[in-house]
Amino acid sequence: QAQLVESGGGLVQTGGSLRLSCAAAGRTFRGYHMAWFRQAPGKEREFVAAIRWSVGSTDYADSVKDRFTISRDNAKNTAYLQMTSLKLEGTAVYYCAAAARYYSDFPKTPLSYDYWGQGTQVTVSS
Fold first, then answer.
1. Which helix (H) or strand (E) holds 28?
2. pLDDT along the chain (126 residues), means of 10
3. How far apart are CA 62 and CA 71, in angstroms?
4. What are the angstrom distances between the C-alpha of 3 and each of 17, 57, 66, 97?
């Protein structure tokens, strides 16, 4: 059974940076997409960024474009989310997700993904 394990969350001041990691165990997702979502209290889970593992192409939500970078390390079977210039509204639980199906474009809805990590808390303070 595949598992995704996130790490790297924490407390950071506005304007600061954090790097989240998502280690995949049990299988690889090299033919498919991996993504990061986030969920703030009282809000729906929202798409943050996605990467097509095989070629490294990426897509981002408009709210994080030019500030966040998604990447992957094939050898470590790990995806990353580098977050810079963090804002207060970035406070949320961040989840990594992996699809076990092929999509021609970047899926941005939670139902498109088959595997989820447990989430890691990111808190941005003023």
1. none
2. 92 98 87 94 97 94 98 93 98 96 92 96 97
3. 17
4. 26, 23, 29, 10
